[in-house]
Amino acid sequence: MKNTAILGLALLLTLPVGAATPFDGKIIALDAGHGNGETGAVGSCNGTSVVEADVNIAVRSELEKILTANGVAYHDVAQLDSRQDRVADAEAAGSDVLISIHHNGSTNISADYTQSFVTQRNDKIFASYIHPAIVDALGLPDKGIKNDGYGMTVYGSLPGVLTESYFVTDTDGACDFIDYQNGATNTRVQKEAQAMYDGLAAYFSANTGGGGRGRDK
Q1: Could you tell me the residue range of the domain that residue 40 belongs to?
Q2: Distance between CA 78 and CA 96 in Å, rounded?
Q3: Which of 8, 89, 139, 162 has the most CB atoms lying inside 10 A of its own CB?
Q4: How far apart are CA 50 and CA 37, in angstroms?
Q5: Looking at the domain assignment, is residue 9 inside a domain?
Q6: Where on the tree of life does the source sit, at the highest rank (predicted)?
């Protein structure tokens, strides 16, 4: 699956200006996990706190820049208290897929890997494009795509994935985010956002129907 994102991006780059793209008519729902008073995991870089909710927002913002530059429609999922309500918000916007952006945490400040969570078959198909792209971009150990029974993918009908791209409690990950806030480029935030876009491009290139708004068990 390592080449799917590259192939999808190549297809977009070779299309003439004004030609149809795999994203035509599609809406990408973007959920920045936590927020609304909920911090998520909290790491530290040389005494400066790094809050997961802030990292989630930053990745969403960078992904939105890429989507906008490529004329792709997206919907910012409202940061509601209930995961189910967040999914309902994405569905009400007519979204075709959902990415719930999260970052992991641990008491072990050297723990760091990439993992994603799904529930239904359509989620697994969608995640099989998004997750490997993130793994390739960040170069962290791959803990794979895991079935869960608690995340946003439990609810609603959208093909979705909950990503845990890296650990904000890892010292390197936390300091990388501080670098991003200070204007650095090619940080994990930018790499993750680009990987998500590449995965989306590959997914919609391979699934011209967008995977459908229904979900199969």
Answers
A1: 26-206
A2: 16
A3: 162
A4: 15
A5: no
A6: Bacteria
Confirm if 189 and 94 have CB atoms less than 8 A apart: no
Give the pair of three-digit tokens for residue 7.
Answer: 């192939």
The 114-118 sheet, strands edge to edge: 73-76, 27-32, 97-104, 160-167, 114-118, 142-147
The whole-angstrom separation of Cα 30 and Cα 78 is: 9
Contacts of 29 (CB under 8 A, 6+ apart): 74, 75, 77, 90, 93, 95, 96, 97, 98, 99, 158, 160
Work out the angle between the directed axes of helices 121-138 and 188-206 (0-180°, nearest 10): 140
Number of domains in the chain: 1
104 assigned to some structural domain: yes
Q: Are 35 and 81 in contact (CB under 8 A)?
A: no
- For the record, the structure tokens of 190 come out as 């930018």
Q: How far is CA 101 from CA 7, 76, 115, 172, in A?
A: 24, 12, 11, 19
What is the rounded average pLDDT of the residues 100-104? Answer: 96
2 in a structural domain: no
Judged against a pLDDT cut of 70, whether residue 99 lies above it is answered with yes
